[in-house]
């Protein structure tokens, strides 16, 4: 066996592997979410009819979105707890907007309006009216979806300056 | 349990457990192939590679295909062709591959016929190969149903009607096959199952069997010469590469296979990117409509010859002729009465028979696609009769053949 | 080596003959040959294919069209006359006698002048579907035009107006919507006979999308009206680009009767520019992968060329000392 023979075999093998990588890249693209799925990742919700302390559930990218208009008392409470960063101010009202999936393992917490508190039935995690965690196991408050304020409307999926600020100061993790 | 020594390398570790070295010897380095061969001997590996390509492209099509009569058409023509990243590539590869796999199968078959590679000792190679042909046909047909276009629907209608057995009127059987009075949801679902599961499993099994039948009799060579494999293998192992009549499958035979595959892939991908229309009939880009038959219906090119054997006769004889055409190739090793293992050009009358058969099947193929009118019908009828005459003549002319 | 090339030659020859037989030859025998007319609408084909009793009427009609075409049209006067057309051809027009009148926003750009003249003169004759109106053009949905605009100079003026003012830049999608979209949907382009499919949202509590259901009902009613008027629902054109040859589409659009005798489809009267725009749109929805193919093709082929060269060198090195 001459070395040249081995060399050509290896060269061919290496070149074939290169083609294989190209094919794998095409396969990776095939596996990506479809453009129509991504385009559907925007939802507009109108907040003008929201009532204080009544939880509204919307849907965005297949996930439940909680919207909770804060009453005066709730805002006071949030101020005390230094959780105002978690609220979105539109005109004169404050809103809690969050992805309604427990940050522990993704169950949907239920809202108890009397106590202004969320309870996740799966593992007993609890959150307050700004969706900040008050009882473990969840590691953090509910995540805020990317949003942009458009008058009294909220466009979910787009990143407005208010959302970018929340991301930057660590109020929420990217969803 | 057997005793195991500590292994010093991964190779040794695997060898102890699965006999890696023996496996390599049996399948590669000491799987002896005669040296006197041409590129036609690479068609087996070309087929294996094409099957692999069909499998891979099929997997990616499967990710977005939707086997429902309402959604199938758009899941193929919109979702896969427009939305899925490189979806069009997988579909074009799958369509072109399905067509080319038959081209190579036919070349592979006629190579075997020409060089007498089905003779004594090699009958099972031929029969398992024909089995693969039938399985690939079923795979191709079931796959053709899936886009649920006009051709899918009407091919499904016509081909399943064949099972009514003509004047036997076995309509119950036809409905049983379809799961409905016409090809509909149940039909599409079950052909989907056949195409993506049962047929591929059967094909993979048959390929393993086909390879197995090859191991003891060894592949044939250009002159049909009986090679002393043991003696030749000994010479090769002593390093007398030029004196030996054989080469190992890997790497020597494989290096030629891979080169032939390279040439084939250039053609394959040229067709995929620039000339795919031949493999994707325009009529099938109209959605299935059970209330309107297209003006021209015809099978894909690889079924045309047997379709044409059915067409010129009245229903019952036509069905018998069709059934005959489907199975007759299986019997080749027994209808050829000559013991000569030699290329056709050395076999006198058989040489004529070979080219006549090839030409006849080509004519049948042409006529199968043309509208069955006027002169085309007549030519088709003559070619169909010729097909039978040739098969009846085969045992006679080979019996009379001189022993070489 | 020589022997192998000879064998390759035989295999290649058989393969090519096989291909020729089942593709170009078979298709040449299967399809009727129809001559194109380069989008000139002077009635030549109509007169040729007309039955004996109609030949004279058609000859007379098209020669009158020719006369009107010679007149110099006054666009300003035409604008006033066009007011009568705009009563039906407007935004949000309602279905009239089976079909919704199309927008004429770009009529001057995409339709042929002769055709427009003929159309105003006698819609059934111009679109070559007069066989459907044995009782005269008045029963055609646009038949009443002859009682509104009939003087040759008026016709010339309206056409001059269309050519001057309704001829702006037109996108391929607009061309499709105006010329084809009233009868043919294009679901891959998100178009129904009523235009763009609106974005709607389902109720989160019930999962029902009432707006979509209402819209779908409107589309279904429009389609029923079309099917009643035309005898069948005109096919969705999403991938007609792959279902028919380009030659078929060109000659069919020019004169539907030439390809499908007796069809209810009217001639649309597209000029060459309009036709190209429409085809561009059909290619977009019917063969969207063309640009991606053109991009990836050379790379993949280049890869296999190199692959084959390397494989050849490997084979040579392995087989060098075998003989």
How far is it from the N-terminal to the C-terminal residue of chain C, by CA?
13 Å
Spatial strand order of the main sheet of chain A: 2-3-5-4
Q: In percent, how helical is the residue content of chain C? A: 55-70%
CATH topology of the largest domain in chain A: Rieske Iron-sulfur Protein
Mean pLDDT of chain C: 91
Assembly state of the chains shown: heterotrimer
Number of helices of chain C: 16
Strand percentage of chain A lies at: 25-35%
Tell me the helix content of chain A: 25-40%
The whole-number mean of residue pLDDT values of chain A reads: 85
**Biggest sheet of chain C: strands, sense, closure?**
2 strands, antiparallel
Helix-strand string of chain C: HHHHHHHHHHEEHHHHHH
Low-confidence spans of chain C: pLDDT under 50, at least 5 residues?
none
SS-based class of chain C: mainly alpha
Q: Domains counted in the coordinates of chain A: how many?
A: 2
Strand line-up across the major sheet of chain C: 1-2
Number of domains of chain C: 2
- Name of the CATH first level of the largest domain in chain A: Mainly Beta
Describe this structure in words.
The complex is a heterotrimer of chains A (175), B (404) and C (323). Helix content of chain A is 29%, strand content 26%. Chain A has 4 helices and 11 strands, in the order H-H-E-E-E-H-E-E-E-E-E-E-E-E-H. Chain A has helices spanning 3-31, 35-39, 72-80, 161-168, and strands at residues 43-46, 55-60, 63-69, 88-90, 93-99, 110-112, 117-119, 126-127, 133-135, 147-150, 153-156. Chain A has a 4-stranded antiparallel β-sheet, with no helix packed on it. A 4-stranded antiparallel β-sheet of chain A has the order 6-7-8-9, with no helix packed on it. In chain A, strands 1-11-10 form a 3-stranded antiparallel β-sheet. The longest helix of chain A has 29 residues, at 3-31. Chain A is elongated, with a radius of gyration of 24 Å. Chain B has 2 domains: 31-297, Cytochrome Bc1 Complex, Chain C, CATH 1.20.810; 308-404, no CATH class. Helix content of chain B is 65%, strand content 1%. In chain B, helix 3 (43-62) packs across helix 11 and helix 4 packs across helix 5. The radius of gyration of chain B is 24 Å and the shape is globular. The N and C termini of chain B lie far apart (55 Å). The mean pLDDT of chain B is 94. Chain C folds into 2 domains: 1-30; 36-290, no CATH class. In chain C, 59% of the residues lie in helices and 1% in strands. Chain C is built from 16 helices and 2 strands. The model of chain C has no long low-confidence stretch (mean pLDDT 91).
């Amino acid at each position: 066996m001459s070395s040249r023979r081995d060399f050509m075999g290896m060269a061919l093998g290496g070149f074939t592997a290169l083609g294989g990588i190209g094919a794998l890249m095409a396969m990776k693209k095939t596996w990506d979410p479809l453009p129509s799925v991504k385009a559907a990742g925007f939802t507009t919700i109108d907040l003008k009819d929201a009532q204080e302390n009544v939880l509204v559930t919307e849907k965005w990218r297949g996930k439940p979105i909680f919207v909770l208009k804060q009453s005066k008392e709730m805002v006071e409470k949030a101020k005390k707890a230094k959780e105002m960063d978690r609220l979105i101010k539109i005109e004169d009202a404050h809103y809690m907007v969050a992805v309604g999936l427990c940050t522990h393992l993704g169950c949907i917490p239920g809202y108890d309006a009397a106590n202004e508190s969320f309870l996740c039935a799966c593992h007993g995690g609890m959150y307050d009216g700004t969706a900040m965690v008050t009882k473990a196991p969840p590691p953090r408050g509910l995540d805020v979806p990317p949003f942009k304020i458009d008058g009294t409307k909220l466009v979910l999926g787009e990143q407005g300056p208010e959302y970018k600020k929340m991301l930057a100061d660590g109020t929420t993790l990217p969803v | 349990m057997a005793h195991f020594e500590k292994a010093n390398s991964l190779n040794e570790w695997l060898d102890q457990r699965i006999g890696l070295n023996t496996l390599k010897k049996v399948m590669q380095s000491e799987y002896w192939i005669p040296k006197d061969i041409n590129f036609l001997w690479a068609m087996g590996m070309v087929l294996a590679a094409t099957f692999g390509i069909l499998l891979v492209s099929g997997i990616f099509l499967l990710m977005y295909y939707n086997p429902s009569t309402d959604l199938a058409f758009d899941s193929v023509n919109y979702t896969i062709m427009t939305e899925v990243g490189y979806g069009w590539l997988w579909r074009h590869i799958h369509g072109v591959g399905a067509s080319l796999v038959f081209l190579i199968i036919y070349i592979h078959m006629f190579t075997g016929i020409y060089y007498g590679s089905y003779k004594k000792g090699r009958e099972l190679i031929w029969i398992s190969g024909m089995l693969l042909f039938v399985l690939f046909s079923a795979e191709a047909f079931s796959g053709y149903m899936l886009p649920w276009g006009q051709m899918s629907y009407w091919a499904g209608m016509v081909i399943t009607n064949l099972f009514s057995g003509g004047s036997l009127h076995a309509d119950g059987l036809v409905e049983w096959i379809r799961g409905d009075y016409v090809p509909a949801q149940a039909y599409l679902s079950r052909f989907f199952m056949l195409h993506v599961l049962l047929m591929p499993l059967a094909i993979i099994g048959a390929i393993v069997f086909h390879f197995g039948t090859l191991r003891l009799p060894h592949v044939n060579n250009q002159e049909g010469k009986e090679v002393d494999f043991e003696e030749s293998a000994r010479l090769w192992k002593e390093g007398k590469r030029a004196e030996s009549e054989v080469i190992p499958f890997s790497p020597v035979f494989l290096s030629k296979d891979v080169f032939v595959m390279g040439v084939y892939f250039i053609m394959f991908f040229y067709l995929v990117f620039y000339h795919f229309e031949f493999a994707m009939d325009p009529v099938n880009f109209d959605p299935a409509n059970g209330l309107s038959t297209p003006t021209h219906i015809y099978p894909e090119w690889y079924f045309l010859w047997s379709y044409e054997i059915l067409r010129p006769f009245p229903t019952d004889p036509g069905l018998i002729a069709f059934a005959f055409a489907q199975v007759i190739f299986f019997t080749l090793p027994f209808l050829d009465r000559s013991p000569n293992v030699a290329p056709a050009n050395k076999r006198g009358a058989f040489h004529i028979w070979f080219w006549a058969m090839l030409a006849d099947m080509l004519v049948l193929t042409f006529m199968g696609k043309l509208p069955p009118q006027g002169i085309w019908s007549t030519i088709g009828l003559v070619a169909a009769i010729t097909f039978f005459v040739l098969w009846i003549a085969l045992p006679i002319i080979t019996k009379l053949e001189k022993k070489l | 080596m020589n022997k192998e090339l000879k064998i390759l030659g035989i295999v290649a020859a058989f393969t090519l003959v096989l291909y020729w037989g089942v593709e170009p030859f078979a298709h040449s025998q299967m399809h009727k040959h129809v001559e194109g007319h380069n989008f000139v609408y002077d009635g030549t084909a109509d007169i040729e294919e007309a039955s004996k009793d109609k030949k004279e009427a058609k000859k007379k009609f098209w020669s009158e069209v020719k006369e009107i075409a010679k007149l110099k049209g006054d666009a300003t006067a035409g604008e006033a006359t066009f007011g009568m057309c705009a009563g039906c051809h407007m935004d949000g027009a309602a279905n009239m006698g089976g079909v919704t009148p199309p927008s004429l926003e770009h009529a001057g750009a995409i339709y042929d002048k002769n055709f427009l003249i003929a159309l105003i003169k006698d819609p059934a004759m111009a679109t070559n579907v007069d066989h459907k109106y044995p009782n005269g053009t008045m029963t055609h949905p646009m038949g009443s035009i002859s009682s509104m605009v009939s003087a040759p100079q008026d016709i010339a003026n309206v056409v001059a107006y269309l050519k001057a003012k309704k001829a702006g830049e037109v996108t391929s999608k607009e061309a499709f919507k105006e010329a084809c979209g009233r009868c043919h949907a294009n679901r891959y382009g998100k178009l129904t006979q009523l235009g763009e499919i609106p974005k709607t949202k389902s109720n989160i509590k019930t999962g029902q999308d009432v707006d979509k259901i209402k819209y779908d009902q409107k589309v279904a009613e429009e389609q029923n009206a079309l099917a009643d008027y035309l005898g069948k629902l005109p096919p969705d054109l999403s991938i007609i680009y792959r279902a028919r040859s380009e030659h078929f589409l060109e000659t069919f659009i020019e004169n539907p009767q030439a390809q499908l005798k007796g069809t209810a489809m009217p001639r649309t009267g597209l000029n060459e520019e309009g036709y190209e725009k429409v085809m561009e749109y059909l290619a977009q929805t019917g063969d969207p992968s063309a640009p991606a193919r053109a991009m990836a093709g050379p790379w993949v082929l280049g890869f296999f060329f190199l692959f084959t060269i390397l494989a050849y060198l490997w084979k040579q090195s392995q087989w060098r000392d075998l003989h």
